[in-house]
Amino acid sequence: MRIKILSITLLILMFLPVSVLATIASSSTIYNGIDVSNWQGYINYSEVKSNGIDVVYIKSSQGNNIVDAYFRINYNNAKANGIKVGFYHYLTARNEEEAIEQANFFVSVISNTIPDCKLAMDFEQFGNLSIEEINNISETFLQRVTELTNKEVIIYSDASNARDVFGVELSKKYPLWIAEYGVEVPQNTNWEFWEGFQYTSEGKVSGIQGFVDRDNFTENIFLSNINKLPETGNEENYNQDTTYIVQSGNTLSQIALKYNTTVKELVALNNIKNPNLIFPNEKIIVPINGNTKNENIYDSNHIIYTVEKGNTLSELAIKFRTTVMQIAKLNSIQNVNLIFTGEKLRIEI
């Protein structure tokens, strides 16, 4: 009886889908990495580099009109400290036409930069889309990015979607950057190898306040041709800087508000030692972010934070190193358990 059961078990295992098989690294050389967005705020990349981080993936954009508020400062400072850089776009398209529009936007945002790593698609919120629609939208986006940049691309996906949503055809054409926490070896359906493995969202790295995603990357994550991305010819250029001549009475916070940026970014771009001390006729480099939806506006002491879906006051208090009661007091909030998406909160920093 035991022999018979064992034989049946072996036969079943032979015909099980690939999803039970582990996905392994595409090479034996592994690089320590992180991925970041405006959620991490200002990052000290000198400390990050000293902490052994080799690669950083930077959120550049989302949808068809949102540029990450810290995209430029993350790119400039990571590059300045010798860290390899990749970019990812958070895709929200609901049809192939929108996928092309968002690919065009992504490439516009990152034009004139020099990425070291494959350009990544982060598509994880699908709404009511069918699996076929998801795969067609993904293929359209990835093809368009490749066409515009002549660079390799990669799919970022959690293990569940890599196993159940993204299909075989995509896995044959595009490599995988997989997210799965609490495991040493991730699993999925259609990819035999990973080039990126996001293994925790609660990493701690010197130079970054709070948690950050931690990743392992193989040598295959790097682009085969590392050169400047071309200009797209769009009217809106999301990657230029301009020079502002300081007027009598100006402050950095005033200039930051005028150019839809932050005091911290101006300080970093201009290597300003004392943010409270600028002089008339001094030239200040300021970023021009095009149609940037930078809703978190800073002055020297406060941020105006736009509440996102799922936010809580306790979460925001941790993020900005303050207290629930302090936020409630500044904003005259009567019920600390009730805040609304789109609501603007004044937070002391």
What can you tell me about this protein's structure?
The chain is α/β, with parallel strands linked by helices and 349 residues long. It has helices at 2-15, 45-50, 71-80, 96-110, 131-149, 159-164, 168-173, 252-258, 263-270, 313-319, 324-331, and strands spanning 24-25, 30-36, 55-62, 66-67, 84-90, 119-122, 153-158, 176-179, 193-194, 196-203, 212-218, 240-245, 283-288, 297-298, 302-306, 344-348. Residues 1-20 and 290-300 have low confidence and may be disordered. The protein has three domains: 20-221, TIM Barrel, CATH 3.20.20.80; 239-294, LysM domain (Membrane-bound Lytic Murein Transglycosylase D, Chain A, Roll); 301-349, Membrane-bound Lytic Murein Transglycosylase D, Chain A (Roll), CATH 3.10.350.10. The chain is globular, with a radius of gyration of 22 Å. The protein has an eight-stranded mixed barrel with strand order 2-3-5-6-7-8-10-11. The longest helix is centred in the middle third of the chain and has 19 residues, at 131-149. It is built from eleven helices and 16 strands.
Task: Break the fold down into its secondary structure elements and pairings.
Layout (H helix, E strand, L loop, with lengths): L1 H14 L8 E2 L4 E7 L8 H6 L4 E8 L3 E2 L3 H10 L3 E7 L5 H15 L8 E4 L8 H19 L3 E6 H6 L3 H6 L2 E4 L13 E2 L1 E8 L8 E7 L21 E6 L6 H7 L4 H8 L12 E6 L8 E2 L3 E5 L6 H7 L4 H8 L12 E5 L1
Parallel strand pairs: 1-9, 2-3, 3-5, 5-6, 6-7, 7-8, 8-10
Antiparallel strand pairs: 2-11, 3-4, 10-11, 12-13, 14-15, 15-16
